[in-house]
């Protein structure tokens, strides 16, 4: 028998998989409701115990890449399977969360997100899914027609950023659905 969580996840995935365009009046409300329901269920994770106050919500038991880096942004690429997200095509642009350790992904709250190299980030900046490097975030808004804008959240702290290699920085995760750049 399917769990309530699996039914919500299936609806959430199917609702967005069938079309690239959406109705602003209704789809954001439906999307937010589904996300809130999903997040409420994830709070109980596999132990049935809510996380500590202020701790990011985590989704356990998903299979990811063999060596995910902490902070890599991921999307659901198959049944309970995660892959590195990228905003260049719709199929990989549906950001789900960021890896905190192998098999565990943060899906809501404030947690480290891995940024591209060569940026000049500032606290309070909008964070976008990278269209060029899979699994990475950027503070530069995408502009290439045919690709997607995905807002991941707001940059909280830039301490320790390495512009030569990129770094994981603290982000308040507020992911949006992909929006096609005309």
Distance between the termini: 43 Å
Class from secondary-structure proportions? alpha+beta
- Assembly type: single chain
* Main beta-sheet annotation: 9 strands, antiparallel
**Could you tell me the mean pLDDT?**
80
Number of strands: 11
The ordered string of helix (H) and strand (E) elements is HHEEEHEEEEEEEE
State the share of residues found in helices, binned by percent: 10-25%
Sequence stretches where pLDDT stays below 50 over 5 or more residues: 43-50
Rg over CA atoms: 16 Å
* Beta-strand fraction estimate: 25-35%
Write down the overall geometry. globular
Number of continuous helical runs: 3
Structure description:
The protein is α+β, with helices and mostly antiparallel strands. It has a domain of 124 residues. It contains 3 helices and 11 strands, in the order ααβββαββββββββ. Strands 1, 2, 3, 4, 5, 6, 7, 9 and 10 form a 9-stranded antiparallel β-sheet that branches. Strands 8-11 form a two-stranded antiparallel sheet. Helix 1 runs antiparallel to helix 2. The longest helix has 19 residues. The radius of gyration is 16 Å and the shape is globular. The termini are far apart.
């Amino acid at each position: 028998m399917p769990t309530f969580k699996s039914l919500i996840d299936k609806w959430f995935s199917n609702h967005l998989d069938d079309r690239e365009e959406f109705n602003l009046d209704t789809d954001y409300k439906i999307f937010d409701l589904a996300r809130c329901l999903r997040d409420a269920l994830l709070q109980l994770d596999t132990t049935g115990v809510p996380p500590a106050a202020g701790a990011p919500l985590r989704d356990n038991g998903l299979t990811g890449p063999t060596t995910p880096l902490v902070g890599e942004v991921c999307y659901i690429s198959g049944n309970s399977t995660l892959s590195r997200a990228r905003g260049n095509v719709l199929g990989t642009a549906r950001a789900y969360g960021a890896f905190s350790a192998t098999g565990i992904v943060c899906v809501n709250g404030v947690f480290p997100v891995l940024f591209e190299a060569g940026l000049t980030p500032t606290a309070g900046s909008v964070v976008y899914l990278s269209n060029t490097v899979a699994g990475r975030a950027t503070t530069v808004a995408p502009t290439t027609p045919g690709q997607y804008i995905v807002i991941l959240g707001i940059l909280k702290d830039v301490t320790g950023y390495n512009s030569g290699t990129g770094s994981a920085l603290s982000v308040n995760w507020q992911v949006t659905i992909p929006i096609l750049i005309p």
